[in-house]
Write a structure and sequence with these properties.
heterodimer; A: mainly alpha; B: four-stranded antiparallel β-sheet; four-stranded antiparallel β-sheet; elongated; binds zinc ion
């Protein structure tokens, strides 16, 4: 069973999840659980909270597999996007003031308000790191703060003392450029 | 804040939205626009894929996290254990040279016309024959076991006339037509099963005029639909006939 499942494509795997196939969900976790847990932990700084989020995201797939639409994107980005959304909700909720304060305190001591070092130490895949380093510093910082810091674009604008409209467009153009750069390394999600 | 952003305003926010960086008070206006703008939805999907690559750095999923998930799901059966005709959205797979006539508002396929070249039909027939020989258990017992096994997929081919056929698919690519309500055909006619795999319609087997439990084999990864047509005895390489029953993945 395991050896067969490892050959299934993601869409097919989710299909099997929908038939109540626990081994299929285990295979989804084996493939994508690392990045998913890593992202939650990075945002929340707390392995227990991260475990809760990952569990919630996996259970949601178990109960509502039809929410994943293979035509709209990969299973990995679907799971990561849910994980990111739930983690950020938690950071922004009132009950998570402690997480927020710790995050802001960490940020305050970092010269230049950059998460770059942290992102570097994440052992980003080489090609992703290369692509990130080709962005303008402004684009890179805005994306890092929004994605890995969990800040809204307005908060990023304040942190970087830059107009909100500029931050919005830097995030968008930065992501577009990353897509193009990653396309060259054969990694682009969509041609 | 407008109730709904226009295309330009929405577009400007798509990058931030993909990173969950749009403040709550703007989200609704953006989502209202996204609901009817395919262009914005496509760009958003692209940004989300890129964001996914940024996060995809840790390779190994911690096993203790899985343990807690497994503990939870043993108490929570999935909401949708069976893929049934009524629950699926009917949508023609792209790039299939088949004309799908859908009944508006009703979740049934009225007719499916199949007009592409099938794979080597002789091979298909041989596969079915040898598979039948290999099976030690009587087929109906195997199919009944397959129907009851939660590990297999089960799809129901339907039609406007109410005829249906249930296919069960094992993870290893073996399938059975386990039950059906197809009318017996004259001796010179036969039912033929077609699978839509990666946008191509291929013959999955010639079923005979009055199918019993019929096994077949298919590359289980990525099938998009099944149809059964009525053909001259021996089957055809490509069919011009309407499907008697059909199922298409959403
Ligand atoms: Zn738009």
């Amino acid at each position: 069973m395991e050896t067969t499942l490892t050959r299934q494509e993601d869409g097919q795997l989710v299909h099997l999840v929908g038939t109540g196939h626990e081994a299929a969900l285990a295979e989804v976790y084996r493939r994508h659980g690392g990045p998913v847990f890593g992202l939650a932990k990075r945002l929340l700084r707390d392995p227990d909270l991260a475990t809760d989020i990952v569990q919630e995201v996996m259970l949601r797939l178990w109960k509502n597999p039809e929410k994943f639409d293979a035509d709209r994107g990969s299973l990995r980005s679907f799971l990561l996007s849910q994980t990111h959304g739930r983690s950020v909700d938690l950071i922004r909720s009132e009950s998570a003031r402690r997480i927020r304060e710790e995050r802001d305190a960490r940020l305050a001591v970092q010269a230049g308000l950059s998460l770059e070092e942290e992102v570097w130490e994440m052992a980003l895949a080489d090609h992703v790191r290369d692509a990130m380093s080709e962005l303008d510093a402004g684009e890179r910082k805005a994306i890092e703060l929004a994605y890995f810091g969990g800040y809204t674009y307005r908060e990023v604008a304040k942190l970087l003392d830059t107009p909100e409209g500029t931050i919005k467009s830097r995030i968008r153009s930065g992501l577009q450029r990353l897509n193009g750069l990653l396309a060259k390394s054969g990694l682009a999600p969509i041609s | 804040m407008p109730a709904e952003y226009d295309h330009n305003e929405a577009q400007g926010l798509l990058g931030a939205y993909a990173l969950d960086a749009v403040p709550a008070d703007e989200t609704l206006a953006l989502e209202r626009h996204l609901a009817h703008c395919a262009e914005c939805r496509a760009e958003l999907a692209e940004h989300r894929e890129v964001a996914g690559l940024l996060a995809a750095s840790e390779r190994f999923a911690p096993s203790q996290v899985w343990d807690s998930i497994a503990g939870e799901i043993s108490n929570q059966p999935p909401a949708a254990p069976v893929i049934s005709l009524q629950r699926r959205r009917w949508m023609a797979p792209m790039a299939v040279a088949a004309a799908f006539v859908l009944v508006a508002g009703a979740a049934v396929v009225q007719s499916v016309r199949i007009g592409t070249i099938s794979d080597d039909l002789a091979n298909e027939r041989q596969t079915v024959a040898s598979l039948t020989d290999q099976l030690e258990r009587p087929l109906d017992v195997a199919a009944a076991a397959a129907l009851a096994d939660p590990a297999v997929q089960r799809v129901t081919l339907g039609s406007a006339s109410g005829a249906n056929a249930i296919i069960v698919l094992m993870p290893d690519g073996t399938g059975y037509i386990a039950e059906h309500t197809l009318q017996p055909l004259p001796a010179e006619r036969t039912y033929q099963l077609w699978a839509i795999v990666s946008g191509k319609v291929i013959s999955a087997g010639v079923l005979g005029p009055n199918p019993g439990v019929v096994p077949f084999r298919i590359d289980a990864a990525g099938f998009e639909g099944f149809a059964i047509t009525e053909e001259v005895v021996g089957g055809v390489e490509s069919s011009e006939n309407d499907a008697v029953v059909a199922w298409l993945a959403a």
